[in-house]
Amino acid sequence: MATLPVFRWHLAPDGYATRRQLRAAGLRPGGQEVAAQLERPRRRRGPLVAYLYRVDLAKPVRPMTPARWAALAKANTARRICPECCRDAGYVIPPSLGMCSACAFPDNAPEGASWNSSPTSVR
User: Fold this and answer.
1) Is 84 left (phi over 0), alpha (psi -120 to 50) or beta?
2) I need a labelling partner for 82 at 20 to 30 A (CA). Which of 41, 44, 65, 98 fits?
3) Do 113 and 102 form a contact (C-beta atoms < 8 A)?
4) Is the per-residue pLDDT at 113 higher than 80?
């Protein structure tokens, strides 16, 4: 196994880019292996490492098809549905709670709110 060339922070030669830099240019690594790495020294811990890919071997980003847009919209909608009350929360439900804030904290719900009464979820 060959060792990777290591460059200091901000001193990588032209022709190398990180994943984010490739994406900003409309490219993707395209299956190539990591070509080099950047290291940024830190005082009390190990260095920060960023992996670099060759720009000349990068491929263009695959375009979003209508089916991909539909799948993405469906996934984002599913993240907004509370599993407890089966309502659209109006925001992405945090994974730490696993339910909308009204179900997670029923004492803070406004009086007379429909979700504040006994749960009648359809599971």
Assistant:
1) alpha
2) 65
3) yes
4) no
**DSSP label at residue 120:** -
Query: For residues 42 and 96, what is the distance between their CA atoms, to the nearest angstrom?
Result: 32
Q: What tokens were used for 90?
A: 């109006």
**29 neighbors 18 (Cβ within 8 angstroms):** no
Residue 110: per-residue pLDDT:
60
Contacts of 87-92 with CB under 8 Å at 24 or more apart are 87/115
DSSP bridge pairs for 52:
36
Contact 9, 39 (CB under 8 A): yes
Instruction: Go through 80-110 and write b for each residue having 16 or more CB atoms within 10 A of its CB, e for each that does not.
Output: eebebbeeebeeebeeeeeebebbbeeeebe
- Whole-prediction pTM value? 0.64
How far apart, in whole angstroms, are the C-alpha atoms of residue 16 and residue 91? 39
Q: Provide the token pair at 46.
A: 């190990």
